[in-house]
Fold this sequence. Notes:
By secondary structure, this protein is α/β, with parallel strands linked by helices. Helices cover about 55% and strands about 10% of the residues. It contains 8 helices and 5 strands, in the order βαβααβααβααβα.
Amino acid sequence: MTRSACFITLEGLDGAGKSTHIPWIEDRLRRAGVDLLSTREPGGTPLGETLRELLLHQPMDLRTETLLMFAARNEHWRTRILPALERGQWVLCDRYTDASFAYQGGGRALGAAPVRILEDWVQQGRGPDCTLLFDVPLEIARERLTRGREQADRFEREDAAFFERTRQAYHARVAADPSRFRVIDARREIADIRAELGGILDELLHARGYGTAAGEPDPS
């Protein structure tokens, strides 16, 4: 079987715990022989990282915020993610366009329609192959944020109603595209979450011509 690229994104509320699992996912994929680009949004390019600092710390109008998110995303998509996929690399990205539907569209109540227009313009119909949504109840996410952050950014400082709208918007995305999403119950112990993640990754590896992360040959 010919090996092929895969674009995986990770999503979830601030405090859902997804960042805890990123190094583990990276290691598992690389042990399976995957040539991996691991990146993040907003960010991922020199311009994107500059815009990230503005987006996380500088007050701005909602439309400005949304446009800057997509400016960073366009640079990221066209200069790093798309070229990597075209080379046959896998891409693992901490947040992508679903975050804009959730945070700007839902949390900030912009609505999905403007985000969808920008998504279509920037991505031209191409997006992630698999999205891992780390889902926790709001109270758990906020407790983890309080415990784990020395200095919160302007998104993390939002109130409970903002995060509830954000979570609802994520679940609306799942309902609209259930075959792409894998919803991870992130309330569980780390070992249980990683057991589930391992199974998902092995499915993706096998479907794209790889063995498992343990180095087993592809039976096909």
